[in-house]
Design a protein that fits this description.
about 5% helix, six-stranded antiparallel β-barrel, mainly beta, about 55% strand
Length: about 170
């Protein structure tokens, strides 16, 4: 009798990577978000809970999401992603000037086209929190908060995995 193959494979944290649009000429340029010490996502589901008179317990439905990504990074010079976030923070930018497009690429999911990976693109508001918390490196932290629906598509990465090209499939709210 042949042994059953273990097809499970651990998805490492480094298997889901983020890229930020740092393009300046109108064309997007998704550069890998490197040197971040934190980038954890909270879905912040909105719930509707109620108890019906003919039932003993509460019933809950999810009615929406308000995702956010907590971030922290050690500032590096000559890093376009850091420069964009530092500019927003240091110059206290607001409204459209504080928006960024972030592409999350799942390296554990090959695209159905056979080339590239499944990816989600969304616009976030940059909500700066603190800076300079470390004595070893200059640090910035804050939150990226949902500002749009997300677009699912395919990301193809450059040879050194630092630049992504995104092709959308469809959009969800």
């Amino acid at each position: 009798m042949a042994e059953a193959e273990n097809t499970e494979k651990l998805v490492k944290r480094s298997g889901k990577v983020a890229f930020m649009d740092v393009g300046t000429s109108g064309a997007p340029k998704y550069q890998r978000m490197k040197k971040f010490t934190e980038m954890s996502q909270s879905k912040n589901a909105t719930e509707y809970s109620r108890t019906y008179v003919d039932e003993d317990g509460e019933v809950t439905d999810v009615t929406g999401y308000s995702p956010e990504i907590g971030y922290a990074f050690d500032q590096y010079s000559n890093n376009a992603v850091h420069e964009k976030l530092v500019d927003i923070t240091d110059n206290e930018k607001t409204g459209p000037d504080a928006l960024v497009n972030i592409l999350i690429v799942d390296l554990s999911k090959k695209a159905s086209t056979g080339t590239g990976y499944v990816a989600r693109l969304r616009t976030y508001s940059v909500i700066p929190d603190s800076e300079g918390d470390s004595t070893d490196a200059y640090t910035y932290s804050g939150t990226f908060r949902k500002n749009s629906g997300f677009t699912v598509g395919t990301a193809v990465l450059s040879e050194n995995n630092t630049i992504a090209t995104f092709t959308p499939d469809d959009e969800e709210e």
